[in-house]
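[step 3/7] fold_predict: job queued, chain A
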Amino acid sequence: MSEDLKVSKIKRGTVIDHIPAGMAPTVLRILGISDGASNVVVVAMNVKSSKLGQKDIVKVENQILDEQKFQKISIIAPQAIINIIDNYQVVEKRGVSCPHELEGILKCPNRNCITADRLEKMLTYFVCEKEEPLILRCHYCETSVAADRAEIL
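[step 4/7] structure written:
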């Protein structure tokens, strides 16, 4: 008996590889996938990886990521590789990188920030302060937050 687990290919959709171990549920939340999802979703967690030691993989049929989802994933999985699938073939392979500016992606941890005021209805706006480890700074109140502590909207 083979020790390999085989998962069928998807005709169209997205495969996200090299997600840090244990972060697949966060990726599913970013993608808007819940228990009632009607499309095929495959999640592999704590898979052996020569690059990361262990990793997660998420495969979603019939969903192509928009730029905002790419940005959100880049915050929690800076080494992720995203494969776009069409007609069972990889048509685009893209590594994520944190953009210099993030608008409306993260919640500012400072309760006194203008973006926390519901009446103001200001979108959050963060800039990349440091890439390794990833540190983001709020444009309005200048509060810095490590990516692993950032709350994704």
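[step 5/7] annotate
The mean pLDDT is 89.
The longest helix spans residues 67-76.
exit 0
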